[in-house]
Amino acid sequence: MEYKIIIRIARQELTVNFRNKWTVLFAAVFGALVVSISYFGIMAEGFSGMQNFTRTSASILNLVLYIVPLVSLVMGTLSFTGDKGSTELLFSQPVSRAEVLLGKLCGLFLSVSLSMLGGFAVAGILISSINGEEGLIQYGFFVLLSLMLALVFLSIAVVVAVVNRRKSKAFGISLFLWFFFVLFYDLLALGGSALFKGQDANLFLFLSLFGNPVDMVRVATLISLENVSIFGAAGAALLRFLGGPTSSILLLTISLLMWIVVPVKISQQLLSRQDI
Amino acid sequence: MISVQHITKRYGTFTAVNDVSFTVDKGEVFALLGPNGSGKTTTMKTIVGLNVPTEGKVLINGIDIRTNPKEAKEFISYLPQRIVFPENLTAREVIRFYGSMRRLSKELADKALATAHFNGFSDKTVSEFSGGMIQRLGLAVVSMPDAPILLLDEPTANLDPQGVKQFREFVLGMKAKGKTIIFSTHLLAEVEQLADRVGIFVGGKLAALESIENLKTTFFQSGSIEDLYLHYVGSCENENR
């Protein structure tokens, strides 16, 4: 594998995406929402002005969990089901299929990351200038988890696009997956737990956490913000099950990495055996 | 230089290419001729390594395109049937990108652009180009690496008469440089004017493999290349019935 080739393809993908009006629109909307939530987040409680980092992270969490998977799936699917003429020309060059796949994925990830980082950075500068730097490390970790979530769903989008080369079909499946992970999965997990009793039901729920990267990011963020009490007794049991806050975060982060590596490996294997 | 050995390509129960074998020698211009859906593009894409054959193999300079694709593709420059570039990139960015895929310098890429008469348009985006200009940019991308083998899939399908004329000049120029060229077409005049040998595809099979010289001496005396083509297409269709 030639890393220079991967970097060149990534750079090209980044350039194409950054000149795309939809990427620019996403960056602008995401940035505006993050800054607005940071600024107006505690107005409902009778206060005005900028929240601190911990409150901001908790407030932005839901926005990230809804928007980032959707945008990543859409951008990933559109890019990997690109026009046949362009794809054929690229794959006919003396480059391996894995280099093309990784290059495009890296370029897409950079596009999504830079779009998100703009909003996070502006909010971060505003918060630190008004409320100081308390909670900055947790905020940084939350940003990192948000980026990982983007990469997880870009990797899933690659599998979808490799399996379904028709843009409309791949797009439909991506939307279904967004609904599944963001909206349906928790209902399924809760329904599934009703099949078990006592400890078995708890164990089922804990294990089901690792089947949904959206939930993993939610839980890891809340643990890092020391906000796991929001889950009540279940939160305490979760921490006990996972072995305390540090090991919980570590385990969830490693599991998220697996959610990136496994789809990429699967798509690489499928791509090596199929027609372009 | 190119050896296609017993290639079969099936999509489920449909056989797109059925046990096709031929060789193309260095410096030869070889045409894949046949009606739409006869297996020309599938064969072409298998030679480039874009399609995975169900059976058979393709050797480029003795290198198997499936087992050593990167090495084999160093010898090939391919123009797809319908060429598309990202609309928001300039011609210079496009050609430099494809140059970088072959580790070529920016200067060489810029030179290829100038040779394709892109002066004044190099820094305009692809969205501003006509279909003919995009095809010219495609030919510049294909000719830039100085690869010994050119594979051109229905290169004149979307061109106006002027574009067709330019393409013919391009092929003749490349032929003069000693390149090995395979192109697919369903236009008989192109075959007659440009090819040294022709493979006639009908229903996924290679119905005939002849040199243009042989065709001219043995068949053209009693008819045109059009008659010959219809003769093969007709006899294969009768066989299939």
Quick overview:
Chain A has eleven helices and no strands.
Layout of strands and helices, then pairs:
The complex is a heterodimer of chains A (276) and B (241).
Chain A (H helix, E strand, L loop, with lengths): L2 H16 L2 H20 L12 H28 L3 H8 L5 H35 L4 H28 L3 H27 L4 H12 L3 H12 L8 H10 L2 H29 L3
Chain B lengths: L1 E10 L2 E11 L4 E5 L6 H9 L6 E6 L2 E2 L4 H5 L2 E4 L11 H11 L4 H10 L15 H13 L5 E5 L7 H16 L3 E6 L2 H7 L2 E6 L2 E7 H8 L5 H16 L1
Parallel strand pairs in B: 3-8, 3-9, 6-7, 7-8
Antiparallel strand pairs in B: 1-2, 1-4, 4-5, 9-10
Helix pairs in contact in B: 3-4, 4-5, 5-6
Could you describe the 3D structure shown?
The complex is a heterodimer of chains A (276) and B (241). Chain A has 11 helices and no strands. By secondary structure, chain A is mainly alpha-helical. The longest helix of chain A is centred in the middle third of the chain and has 35 residues, at 97-131. Chain B is of the alpha/beta class. Chain B has helices at residues 40-48, 69-73, 91-101, 106-115, 131-143, 161-176, 188-194, 212-219, 225-240; strands at 2-11, 14-24, 29-33, 55-60, 63-64, 76-79, 149-153, 180-185, 197-202, 205-211. The longest helix of chain B is centred in the C-terminal third of the chain and has 16 residues, at 161-176. At the A-B interface, helix 1 and helix 4 of A face helix 2, strand 6 and helix 3 of B.
